[in-house]
Amino acid sequence: MKKIFKYLLIGLFGVACLTSCDSELLETQPTDSMSGATFMSDATKALIPLNGIYRSMYTAGWSTTGNTHQCFGISAYNLMAEVMGDDFIMGAQGSGWFWFDAAYNVKGRFTSSSWRSYDLWMAYYTWIANANYIIAAEETMEGSEADVAYVIGQAYAIRAYSYFMLAQTFARNYNFSNDPCVPIYNEPTMTTTTGQPRATVSEVYAQIDSDIDKALTLLAKSPAQRHPSHMSYAVALGIKSRICLVEEKWDAALDAAKNAIAVSGKKIQTVDASAFAPNKANFINSVGQGNVMWGAQIVSDQAGMYASLMTHMSGTAPYGERAPKQISAWLYSKMKSTDTRRAWWNPAENYLQKKFEFSNEQTWEGDYIWMRVEEMYLNAAEAACHKGDDATAKQYLMALMEKRDASYSTEKSGHELATITTNETGSLLEEILIQRRIELWGEDGRIYTIRRLHQGFVRPESYGWPSGLLLLTHTQAMQDPASYLWVLTIPQAEFDGNINMDVAKDQNPVGDYPE
Fold first, then answer.
1. How many whole angstroms separate alpha carbon 304 and alpha carbon 476?
2. Could you give the CA distance from residue 226 to residue 3 in angstroms, rounded to a whole number?
3. Which end of the chain is more exposed for a tag (fewer CB within 10 A), N or C?
4. Neighbours of 431 (CB within 10 A)
5. Residue 2 pLDDT greater than 80, yes or no
């Protein structure tokens, strides 16, 4: 695996350099060169490479040198997963960014270093490599117990999150426990490191569980979030709730979500009822809002310009104008006229989105939000419903909905789901999931939710889908949770550098099913 890990080591030091100027995140301004192992000599200095990881989570142009305008970290990967689903419509191809994700036309491009397989693999494994170096310094790191715990805890959380996203992207869902997943590395790697074979889904999730639990143990010693981009104790709880939903560990998912709400101190944000009013309460673009648990603060000198979320989302921005982002007519119809979230879309413009807009279009500013407290209420409601506790499920659902629609109520019960996301059973679980689809539209990585719930989906033109995205040649796979339609291929660069992986045996199917 010499080739790929050469990139990872370059990423480690290059990313550390990216944020050497971010002194506002540090308790003291470092003056040394931060080279070799000495940059881990104390917990304060260790914030520099840690902040470097976070900076790379919203910076374009380092994970791949091609298609960089659609490769800008976490928000790009969330958007990829949204357009792969059933609710987030691209009205036109525009410049082509994200269109090929929506059309499921990227898997065959795994030999290129400019497409999604390479981009995702490179990003998540770079974050893992960075985290491994920080974790390895735990025993020798100087500083107060709280400071060391804050740094090392975040490194474990980053590693857990990265493996979690890799597992959801490069393997079928959690129930296929014996399927091949991704290689595991939990120690620092060098150009001479021998590549590992693909671990099973079960083995990767065991690593994820271990890492997130270690993160929580450490971060509990220093729970305050020092910057919105940091994976604090509350954020790690939120990530654990996501993991446990995938693993169908309903009690643990409920507990993690409840604790995340309490620890974060965040409150559900109201939405301005005036349709399309220029009010920040309408927009998901500021980490300063009281509901934001985790996100990237985008300042003007770090803005991605064309390679940014808002450029793709805003209907007045170059890419968003040519490739409008719309909610499906079916999902929009699930909101009553009294639901304030209707202000996030304009039915007069084919349900064009107004939820994600620049905070300052002239300077390309607009923060990236990766976790809101509203998600935790929905996670708690869903977990409780799965375990048969309708009363608790309704408690958390109503806590959100009373801020969205004063006339909302529900008498539904049970947790039956249809095999297709738009075929309704009338259950309480389905109602919770519909509200999730509305509330977290554009944020949730929709295809991951569809997969973990073992559902399929359809894309009728009547919902607003353009003809180029109807997926007519994938009809069976779209409705089959066991298909490989949404499982990405592993980049050729991995096979080129890893002696323990053989493209003939270890590559995921390029088609919807194994040949």
1. 38
2. 36
3. C
4. 23
5. no
Residue 1 pLDDT greater than 80, yes or no? no
Residue type, 67: N
Q: Is 384 exposed, middle or buried (0-12, 13-18, 19+ CB in 10 A)?
A: buried
User: Is residue 87 within 8 Å of residue 331, measured between CB atoms?
Assistant: yes
Q: Compute the mean pLDDT over every residue in the chain, rounded to the nearest whole number.
A: 91
The whole-number pLDDT of residue 42 equals 74
Token digits for 104? 């499921």
Q: Is 236 exposed, middle or buried (0-12, 13-18, 19+ CB in 10 A)?
A: buried
pLDDT tens track for 25-61? 333 223 333 333 343 447 878 788 899 999 999 999 8
**Quick one: tokens of 358?**
């620049």
Per-residue pLDDT reduced to its tens digit, 99-140: 999 999 999 999 999 999 999 999 999 999 999 999 999 999
What is the per-residue DSSP string for 131-154?
A: HHHHHHTTTT-BS-HHHHHHHHHH
State the burial class of residue 357 (Cβ atoms within 10 Å of its Cβ: 0-12, 13-18, 19+).
buried
What is d(CA 124, CA 163) in angstroms, rounded to the nearest whole number?
A: 7
Per-state percent for the chain, helix, strand, coil, to nearest 5: 50, 5, 45
Q: What is the C-alpha separation between 127 and 8, in angstroms, rounded?
A: 8
Q: Is 296 helix (H, G, I), strand (E, B) or coil?
A: strand
Could you give the 3-state DSSP secondary structure of residue 272? coil
DSSP string, 343-407: GGEEGGGTTEE-SS--SBGGGTB-PEEEEEHHHHHHHHHHHHHHTT-HHHHHHHHHHHHTTT-TT
Residue 14 has pLDDT above 80, yes or no: no
Q: Measuring CA to CA, which residue among 129, 139, 156, 130 is closest to residue 48?
A: 130
Residue 160 DSSP class: H
Task: Give 180's strand partners.
Answer: 200
Per-residue pLDDT, 62: 93
* Amino acid 33: pLDDT: 34
The total number of residues written for the chain in this structure? 515
